[in-house]
Amino acid sequence: MLQEKGPCQAYHGVEEDEKDEADHDEVLIDRVTDLLSAIAKASGPGFEPLFRRVTPHLLKFNQPHRAAPDRVMAIGTLGDIVEEMGPRVQPYLKDLFPVVIKALSDKECGVRRNAAYTVGVFAIHGREAAKPYAKDAISALSRLLELRAEHKGNDGYEACRDNACSAISK
C-alpha cells in the first residue's frame, strides 16, 4: 500500500471524482500507517528489519508535491515507529535527520509539529549518532518558538510550539 500499487489503489481508467479518490487514498494510507505503528509497538527493536524496507516508501509521502495530510502522516509515522524501535534507529539517522530537519520548515503546521516530535525521538534514541545534527535541529526548532501573535490561541500552532520545546529539552 505504501508503494501505491495495491489493487484498491488502481483505478483502471474508471472516471472517479478526484476528491473521492483523494479521500479514499488518504483513509487507506492512514490505516496502513496506523497498522505500521501498531506493529512497531508490538515488535519494539525487532521492527528494525521491516523499518529498513518500509521507510523509503513512507518518505515518498513527504515529498513537497504531496498533499499536506500525506506529509503530516509520513513524518508523524516515522516518529511513532522510531519511538518503539529505540536505539536501533541510530544507523539510519544520517539519512533521516536531514529530512526531518527540513520538515521543521514545512509550510504546513502539522508537518512542523510532527517533525518537532520526531526530532525529540531521534535525540532520545539516537544518542551519539544524533549529536552531529543538534545545532541544525535546535536552530530550526527555535524558529518554531517565534510564532507570530496572530497564531496565539490556535491549537495547531500551540502544539507545534509545545513539541518544539519538548524536542529542545531532549
From TrEMBL:
Residues 27-112 form the Importin subunit beta-1/Transportin-1-like TPR repeats domain. One of its GO terms (biological process) is protein import into nucleus. Gene3D superfamilies: Leucine-rich Repeat Variant (1.25.10.10). The keyword Transport applies. SUPFAM superfamilies: ARM repeat (SSF48371). Pfam families: TPR_IMB1. It is found in: Cytoplasm. InterPro entries: ARM-like (IPR011989), ARM-type_fold (IPR016024), IMB1_TNPO1-like_TPR (IPR058584), Importin_beta (IPR040122). The keyword Repeat applies. GO terms for cellular component: cytoplasm. Residues 1-22 are annotated as: Disordered. Keywords: Cytoplasm, Protein transport, Repeat, Transport. This is Importin subunit beta-1/Transportin-1-like TPR repeats domain-containing protein. The lineage of its organism: Eukaryota, Sar, Rhizaria, Cercozoa, Chlorarachniophyceae.
